[in-house]
């Protein structure tokens, strides 16, 4: 068996919080327990939201937790490991899709999209929101209509033409067999925004492909992106990785942990006097990997697992982190 290649793909838009750390902890363990490798890639694709200081802070906090990587974020066999420096790769992928007629310009404004689409898809099942389903309003614009929109000064987003009725199936390591239509996942999706920023779906597939990632561990909130990414793998001729969509951490009120939970950033936990082993021990306990929440080093845990990650031990549904974790997790 080939050893897995996993990755950390943080968006450097803030401090590493416990919710991200949870995903990275499991991604790291799943690779390391089988003697695999980890790549660190900064997804600084949106220049308005990304900052170098967050990249540095994320690296510091991962290492503090005991989560290291083999490749990135600077030089290495698959450099660049920053999406802001990888435009050339996205450009070639786009060209190859365009050449086969899979790309069209969409001139819809946000407001028009809202009116066109009605309720967002996927929001109700708690497994993420693919965004409002795009009804394909710009699919069949004539050259004349396009020229007219351009003359009005509109800049188009570029969308992927998803074949009607396209259905993608895969077996998730955590959630089991999945079968979703592209329509359920939001329909024709953007490859590039109207302001020229590359879309997450294209960038993540191109990067995971070129970095030869074989195992993607991420939150189940992204589940509805996966069929879109599988279609891109097919169109671009890549082999998709195995996917593990993990349940997310929530606060005591049932809200998903996010950057706004300031007291639960890894930096805040460290400053509150929590040890990295204590935090890792709690995460391991939440993942069903140890009966008690006692301290542990991730490396020791990986060694103890010593083979394929036991995904079946993960609890189903949302996982609650108690209030005041920063005082208790010591
Ligand atoms: N940068 C993305 C995020 O932080 C990565 C998602 C993924 O793992 O594909 O949400
Ligand atoms: Zn449109």
Automatic annotation (TrEMBL):
Annotated positions binding ATP: 259
Listed InterPro entries: aa-tRNA-synth_I_CS, Glu-Q_tRNA(Asp)_Synthase, Glu/Gln-tRNA-synth, Glu/Gln-tRNA-synth_Ib_cat-dom, GluQ/Sye, Rossmann-like_a/b/a_fold
Keyword Glycosyltransferase: no
Keyword ATP-binding assigned: yes
One Gene Ontology biological process: glutamyl-tRNA aminoacylation
The protein's role, per its UniProt record: Catalyzes the tRNA-independent activation of glutamate in presence of ATP and the subsequent transfer of glutamate onto a tRNA(Asp). Glutamate is transferred on the 2-amino-5-(4,5-dihydroxy-2-cyclopenten-1-yl) moiety of the queuosine in the wobble position of the QUC anticodon.
UniProt protein name: Glutamyl-Q tRNA(Asp) synthetase
Lineage: Bacteria, Pseudomonadati, Thermodesulfobacteriota, Desulfovibrionia, Desulfovibrionales
